[in-house]
Write a structure and sequence with these properties.
disordered C terminus; five-stranded antiparallel β-sheet; 21 helices; 2 domains; Jelly Rolls; alpha+beta; seven-stranded mixed β-sheet; 535 residues
Length: 535
Amino acid sequence: MTTTLHKATGRQGPWFWAGLLVMVLFVGLITRYYHPGTGWSSLISIGEKVANPRVAELRGTGPHLVEGSHGYDGQFYVQLALHPLLRSDELETAIDDPAYRARRMLLPWTAWLLGLGEPAWVVQAYALLNPLCWLLLAVLLWRWLPPVNAENFLRWAGILFSHGVCMSVRHSLTDAPSLLLLAVAMCWWEKQRSKSAVAALAAAALTKETAVLAGVWWAQPPLRGWRQWGRLALIGGLIIAPLALWLGYVRWRFGANSGEEGLHNFTLPLAGLIGKWTETLGEIRREGWSRYNFPTLLTVAALSVQLAFFLFRWRWREAWWRVGGVFAVLGLLVSQPVWEGHPGAATRVLLPMMLAFNLLVPRGRRWLAVLLAGNLSLVAGVLEFHPPRANLVYFHGEPALAGRQTFTVGEGWYLPELKGWQTRRWARQSAGLELHNHADAPVTVQLKARLSALSARQLTLRLNGAPVWSAGLNEQAQWLESPPLELRPGVNRLEFVTDSPAEKPAQGDERELSFCVWELAVQVRPAAAVLPARD
């Protein structure tokens, strides 16, 4: 199959409108991650549990924190976006391996430019770059998979909702943007715009360094004579040059022995894949089917089918096959750290192979089973978009002050749960929070909460032992606002005390419930004359 046979005809047919509907649904999924207090930052997966503090600029924006989590890699790249020249000393402690992460700087640079260097805007821009790349990729793929029939639609959706792409979007990673740039480069290469193709692939490599492997599509056989080999070497050098120059700067900034984490990601051929199969089947035997190991099994099966397709169907003369084939070799060599998890990072590492697979699988019923099996990671991909859980507490106000406030959930609370599009948290009886003021001086805060109760009751709020707020609650959720209060430096104990015992809901819920907090917004201002909070 060639990649330019299918003209983009019939764009107003039913499959065109089905594709538009899918894009609208995707936008709907993404809108669930917006919150008035933290914007789109829940897409970045910034963990609450971190060993070292984040850079001051990120703390100052008051981002969404994933409660009880160490977060994911996007939280490191967004901090690079706040320091695009890597000049902050905080990066060396705030990021797990700053030199390794700093290899992939095009996305952070883009966020910094779009955010005009303003930290709050940079964070929001960074969070939205992956969804934007997803939409652009969706349109670009119609070049090779025009929306004219069900099979093209399946291949198109299989790419966009593959686990690797969805995981990149959901956690603000560099993989989907790199795949988009790689596809742009191939599009220009097919149009014989070699200079533009080289620039796009160099940009893809600055987004994720493994993209340089896609330069193999210039190695079109037969390669004869020193001129052809010299041209190929020149093109390879132009693709690698921007990344090499930047890596030299990163090495100078962080030292010669840093950034070696990626060297541990390779092993003997097939060892990583066999280990993943063994681990996955062992978990199923021990635990049975679950929401984690079943999608993982499907994903490992899909990657295995893709690997087998390139290993046993040799087509070196086809450019997309060369791309898929070189990444299939990479898939055979990556080690267990890349495969571990549910489903694991291998789906992201091998995204170019997945793209090439969907473009190259022959058409017709004979190959339909192979096409379906190679896209089984779609199940895990869709599951990545689980509804986000909102924080129990949000800090607003002046970034310099709000960014220095954190909270800890105390005893008496149940886990967050979704009600429609919103997150709420029930308390057993009375419950507490700790508000941590990391500033050197007291701050003024005003609390605004949306509260409801299982049945009518009185709720009193105490700050450091002193009652500061009281209101009657019932089943109808209502917004209640406290007077200005003072948070002293250090830990401040906030207690929700109710005068009525907890009850069991009539619907068969075995929990004992009293009141519910939908959201607690804390407006932070400089210290002023406020109602004192006594111990």
